[in-house]
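Known limitations

Structure tokens in this collection are predictions and should be treated as such. Users comparing against experimental data should check residue numbering before alignment. To illustrate the layout, the record for Pre-rRNA-processing protein TSR2 is reproduced below. The input appears on top and the generated tokens appear beneath it.
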Amino acid sequence: MDAQATAPPATDAASYLDLGITLALNNWPSLTLAVQSNWGGPTSDDKRAWLCGAISEMLTDRPETDAEDVEDVLIQVMNDEFDVVIDDESAGNVAVQIMEFKEQTDAGQFSAIREMWETWQRKSEQKSAASSMFKQVESRDEDQETDDEASDDDVDMGDAPALVRAPREKAEPEIDEDGFTKVVGKKR
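Generated tokens:
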């Protein structure tokens, strides 16, 4: 998630709704894969951020918007911006979740979005910790390789001989009494 989701938690209904939309879209596996794979080009992450804002704006400007409208936008943007055809029900599920967040924030209920935010924060911390551990292990492995290379126990095997294959004999074509060439299949 980018700067929008790493910002401090929201304080009013509109901010909570924006946070909920951002969390829902960042947790959508189809969009996450498209962004990570740069299927939308080098600005894939910016396109996701734009989509978050576009849905928020749509919900604000058009109060009659329902889950089907949001789903249509999600499917269209995935197709147009990321060249991904969504043929499972995931876009519908994300749209329903976003509309639930809208209903909750309109009623002043922010607990579901807060919980989702806290879960996201824990996952981000775990990923960060795992990433730094991986870098430490990778660094240690590189140090060991240089120590191993300096070891005198290595035996120089010289250059391996090139593999040479003897040329196959090409079979002469068989011609029958009518002048036709017999087709022979490959032996297996």
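For this record: DSSP finds seven helices and no strands in the chain. The two ends are 55 Å apart (CA to CA). Please report discrepancies through the issue tracker.
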